[in-house]
Amino acid sequence: MSNLVNRIAEATEARQRLLDCAHRFTTDQAAFKPSPGVWSIAENVEHLVLAEQGSVNRVWNAAESLRAGKALWTGDAVHRGRTIEEIVNTTWVQGQEAPDLARPRRGGPLSYWMLALQCNQPLLEALPGRPRGLSP
């Protein structure tokens, strides 16, 4: 469990560093797209909000499903026993597209997405209790 707590602490620190940096941009600066197909600063923060919500939701849902005796997936557990770093190193490819659920699509000012990112924090902090008593 302490590994999960450590990961949450790291995410909290990273969130704060991002917020400390992002508040410097004006709305126009944050909306600027250097070229077509490249996300703006606001879109990058929107992506982080959506990706984090999706990840927290999947862990939460998996824990609740296991408690109810319902597996969320079938097949080989190809990542069993591996750290998140090992999984990322073997699955992430430079330049790959974000999954649809994490692609920015709503738009809006950076200030909105910064607050939305802050609002994700309680969801993240509630995670350590979700997998309690379950085998990872």
Architecture overview:
The protein has 136 residues and is an all-alpha fold. It has one domain (2-89, 102-129). Helix content is 57%, strand content 0%. Helix 1 packs antiparallel against helix 5 and helix 3 (41-67) runs parallel beside helix 5. The chain is globular and about 50 Å long. The termini are close together. 7% of the residues are buried. The mean pLDDT is 89.
Note the gap between the termini. 10 Å
What fraction of residues sit in β-strands? Answer: under 5%
Secondary-structure element sequence? HHHHH
Shape: globular
User: Number of helix segments?
Assistant: 5
Number of strands: 0
Overall pLDDT level: 89
Q: Give helix % range.
A: 55-70%
Major sheet: size, sense and barrel closure? none
- Structural class, by secondary structure, is mainly alpha
Count up the domains: 1
Radius of gyration: 17 Å
Low-pLDDT residue intervals, each spanning 5 or more residues: none
Compact overview of the structure:
The protein is mainly α and 136 residues long. 57% of the residues lie in helices and 0% in strands.
Summary tags:
globular; 136 residues; 5 helices; 57% helix; mainly alpha
